[in-house]
What does this fold into?
Amino acid sequence: MAQVIWGSNGRKDVIQIAEYLSGYSETYASALVTKIYRKVGLLANSPRMGKIVPEFSNENIRQLLEGDYRIIYELFDNDVAVIIKVIHTSRNLQELDEN
It folds into this structure.
């Protein structure tokens, strides 16, 4: 079983998404955050389930999709998954590469 760790940027992203969406619908914001956490929880049993992020040439940087959001994570030794970014699919991942 893999260990799943939320990096500080990944955690901040989810908080910001929830705050933004709450301005439109608290119910939707809460439901989306729950879905994101559930999806991330699946990594404990299947850490390689995500697809390789096409913007990077690193097979250990992977993504899961939940709604319109990409959950970007990095695998370490196939048994640690670190959530590094949660980003809307319309946004550019260039900023991830620069951080």
About this structure: The first strand starts at residue 3 and ends at 6. Residues 8 and 84 are 7 Å apart (CA to CA). The chain has three helices and five strands.
